[in-house]
Structures are given as structure tokens and as C-alpha cells.
Amino acid sequence: QVHVVESGGGSVQAGGSLRLSCEISGYTFSRYSYSYCLGWFRQAPGKPREGVAAVDSDGIRTSTDSVLGRFTISKDNAKNTLYLQMNSLKPEDTAMYYCAAGPVAGSSGGVCRTVSYWGQGTQVSVSS
Questions:
Q1: 80, 91 contact by CB (below 8 A)
Q2: Angle value at C-alpha 104, between 3 and 86, nearest 5 degrees
Q3: How far apart are the C-alpha atoms of 65 and 109, rounded to whole Å?
């Protein structure tokens, strides 16, 4: 039914940039536009999963404080694609990054209130 596929991860040196993409199929953003939240989460080995950034159907964006000024979440409704532009990467950004979608608008600190669909993840590794 609904498929969420991330891409764009890789290995970069500190200070570098990456742009993650998330293609969501099965539902277009317009069909899902009444109420939804799209977001990026990450999890480093041995650490809990954390929300990174999110944007909902009302266009409201939130993010975790640690990425403010460095990461930007955006979406292209026509392409059913979510993006995460990551600049000034730090070693502590190293993690598996997951794209997620949920049917309810609203997020806080980069965490969607409800998540129903998850991608497989894409690895981001930042070396010093």
C-alpha cells in the first residue's frame, strides 16, 4: 500500500553536506493533504531514536535544537517527495536516518505526533 523509501545517505567529512530524499508512494500528498505529518528521525548505535525535523499538512515545521540552523526539511507535493538538507555536518550527526509519515497533523521538536509508515533507513556517517 504505502511505501516510504529514503535515499541520499553516505559518508562525508565534518562540515560537509548531504541531502536526503524520501519518496512516498501509494498516497499522493494531495490525497493525504487533509491531515498528515512527514518527518525525519535518526538513531545512532546504542542511543535512542530521536526526531530530527518534521513538516505537516499545515506547513508547520519543527526540529530538534541540535540541528537548528544546519538542517532544513522541505517537501515537493508534486513529486510526493520529502527532503532533508543537511549542512555543516558534525560527527555526532552520524546515524541511520529514517523517513516517516503519519495521518495526523502536528509535531514538536521534530517528532510527528503520530507515525504510521516508516522507511528502511539511510546511513549517514560523518568523520572528523
A1: no
A2: 65
A3: 7
Helix (H) or strand (E) holding 3: strand 3-7
User: Using one digit for the tens of pLDDT, what is the confidence trace for 40-59?
Assistant: 999 999 999 999 999 999 99
61-94 pLDDT, tens digit per residue, is 999 999 999 999 999 988 889 999 999 999 999 9
Residue with cell 504505502: 2
Q: Which residues pair with 126 in a beta bridge?
A: 12
Q: Is 99 left (phi over 0), alpha (psi -120 to 50) or beta?
A: beta
Question: Is the separation of the CB atoms in 80 and 26 below 8 Å?
Answer: no
**Sign of the C-alpha dihedral computed for residues 101, 104, 106 and 107 taken in this order:** negative
